[in-house]
Specification:
By secondary structure, the protein is α/β, with parallel strands linked by helices. The chain has 10 helices and 15 strands. It folds into 2 domains: about 110 residues, 3-Layer(aba) Sandwich (Rossmann fold); about 110 residues, Rossmann fold (3-Layer(aba) Sandwich). Helix 8 links the parallel strand 13 and strand 14. The structure holds magnesium ion.
Length: about 270
């Protein structure tokens, strides 16, 4: 039996790790309460840019995990915070939903409005766009893709909230930003320059600023190997993949970048950490 690993803080992914749809995963509420009782700081990180941080905090609180807005990080929040600090004057063309536009504007950034009119070939002047931001957008259409294409071809920066190809939703996965990024990369021969969400180091920076702990004493817990676990490993954190979401035990065992621990549920973390 291994000695429990000393941990000061734990970063949890949300979908597939803490909850699925509107229900907490078995044992999650009790495990997080006990870890907090033992003095662990907790932070919740989602790549979904669809809701403000406060909505996720309220959902966790409703499910029995009392959470403040400051304990939640989304890819939209990370992108807004990063651009506000590094390139606040860029005029942004956003393929994304209203929450992302509001989040970016809330950081003082300039988000261009869509053109009026119905002609799918009408696009705004690409020279008025300094950067294209790609995110999950359930109202994606030809005109948005064409506008982004023309702007990228004219030299605009190419940013995205997150690289996931699908997004878990109640009722099943839906296409996420990764597919739109691939479409535009294919068209332009360019590569996305900046990703904000997991596994980006930008998310790690925001998380560590919030938690104020050494990465080696921080545990990253998530269900997705290529985002959650990869980010934790690259940051020097201890990592745990939980089998309640997208990854099977076989995936976890055969991963190119495996997690330190494979757990069936969050309850197993109680014996692994001290
Ligand atoms: Mg997940």
């Amino acid at each position: 039996m291994h000695q429990p690993t000393p941990i000061d803080a734990i970063i949890f992914d949300l979908d597939g790790t803490v909850y699925l749809g509107d229900a907490a995963l078995p044992g999650a509420v009790e495990a997080i309460a006990e870890l907090r009782r033992r003095g662990k700081r907790t932070l919740f990180v989602s790549n979904k840019p669809l809701e403000p941080r406060g909505v996720y905090a309220a959902k966790l609180t409703r499910l029995g995990i009392p959470t403040r807005e400051e304990e939640v990080i989304t890819s939209a929040y990370v992108l807004g915070r990063h651009l506000a600090g590094s390139a606040p004057h860029l005029r942004l063309y956003v393929i994304g939903e209203e929450n992302l536009r509001a989040e970016l504007r809330g950081h003082g950034l300039t988000v261009l409005d869509e053109l009026d009119g119905q002609n799918p070939q009408d696009v705004m002047d690409p020279t008025g766009i300094d950067a294209v931001v790609v995110a999950l957008d359930r109202t994606l259409d030809y005109r948005k893709l064409n506008t982004a294409y023309q702007a990228l071809r004219a030299g605009a920066h190419f940013f995205a909230t997150n690289p996931d190809s699908t997004c878990p939703m109640p009722g099943g996965d839906i296409p996420d930003a990764g597919a739109t990024i691939a479409y535009l990369e294919h068209l332009t021969g360019r590569e996305v320059e900046l990703l904000a969400g997991k596994p980006s180091p930008l998310t790690v920076q925001v998380a560590m600023a919030e938690l104020q702990v050494e990465p080696s004493r921080c545990l990253m817990v998530g269900d997705r190997l290529e985002t959650d676990i990869r980010m934790g490993r690259e940051a020097g954190m201890v990592t745990a993949v939980v089998l309640t979401g997208v990854s099977s035990r076989k995936d976890a065992l055969h991963a190119a970048q495996p997690a330190d621990w494979i757990v069936e549920g969050l309850g197993e973390l109680l014996a692994l950490t001290q």
